[in-house]
Amino acid sequence: MKYQDIIIQIDNKVFQPVYFLMGEETFYIDKISDYISKNVLSEEEKEFNQTTLYGKDIDVATIISEAKQFPFGSAHRVVIVKEAQDIRSIDQLELYFDNPLPSTILVICYKYKKIDKRKSFGKNLSKKSVLFASKKLYENQIPAWIKGQLKEKNFNIDEKSAHLLSEYLGNDLSKISNELGKLILNIKEGETITAKIIEENIGISKDFNVFELQTAIGKKDILKSNKIIKHFSENPKNHPFVLTLSSLFSYFQKVMIYHSLKDKSKNNAASQLGVNPYFLGQYQLAASNYSMSNLFTIFSYLKEYDLKSKGIQNPSVPENELLRELTFKILH
Questions:
Q1: Distance between CA 140 and CA 163 in Å, rounded?
Q2: Which residues of the chain does CATH 1.20.272.10 include?
Q3: Where do you find CATH 3.40.50.300 in the chain?
Q4: What are the residue ranges of CATH 1.10.8.60 in the chain?
Q5: Dist CA 130 CA 145 (whole Å)
């Protein structure tokens, strides 16, 4: 089932005996389990009828024992199992799933991975429980997700700022959600979030970030590239070399894809690159500045400096110098 479908069912008081929440992205697993925790029972009912267990501290027998208890003074009992990936022989829960107690709502939070569907337990999960599989979002999906989260709270964000947050925060939805929560505490409802607001409230510079570095390198703007690198070298904790390297690799990979496209129309090119059409111009400009031959050379530099950052063929050159060298080679 999808996240919103589960929430709607809970709001309508349609409860299922077993919810199995699994996957690499933990954000929605926590959202669903927290929603069930807060919205099924009243505060008075929770005292005797709601319990939370943790995978490291329990076994399957403990879960089944809790799930088989009848509610006291309530129509339902809620049992939430967090960090279920730490439970040994979790497939033994199938014995309970075959005949669950209708009055119990059992929520299993199995994080960071999936159950093997080649085995009997995995094959039958969707038949015997409400199965929710949470996948990591791709990087190019994050800006739209940020916009959607803010829209739910009656805030807007401009396209560039959504991408700035995406570049800086990565694709950890819980981390992004926390930062958005801090951000909206300091602005008025309905206000549009800009790069300036982000800089003032989160500390991400609107002028000195990896997004601006990519753009400057793509334009072959040597002065701006060097200014950004200088800022990075003075703030190494906020701009780890490994993340900058990863972003540059992703950026030039898109430039290479653009070169290879037969249909370079705006919508098709943006779709193939996985970017918003608003940003397509910068990839077009970069493609005009860097030939395919240039790009192959740049990828060899990126690989070389990735190895150097790991101490291979590197006589103790600091990371800020590595970035300076790498950028010089790319630009020249």
A1: 9
A2: 210-331
A3: 3-134
A4: 139-201
A5: 24
Question: Which range has the top average pLDDT, 1-15, 109-123, 179-193, 200-214?
Answer: 1-15
Question: Residue 110's beta-bridge partner residues?
Answer: 22
| CATH domain 3-134 topology | Rossmann fold (3.40.50)
Q: What average pLDDT does range 41-68 have in this prediction?
A: 95
Which of the two residues, 289 and 119, has the higher pLDDT score?
289
CATH 1.10.340.30 fits 210-331, yes or no: no
Residues written for the chain = 332
Residue 59 has pLDDT above 80, yes or no: yes
pTM: 0.74
What is the domain class of 139-201 according to CATH?
mainly alpha
8 A C-beta contact, residue 241 and residue 107: no
pLDDT tens for residues 203-233? 777 888 888 999 999 999 999 999 999 998 8
Per DSSP, helices labelled H in the chain are 3-11, 27-39, 43-49, 60-67, 94-97, 120-128, 142-152, 159-169, 173-184, 195-201, 210-219, 222-234, 241-260, 266-273, 280-289, 292-309, 319-331
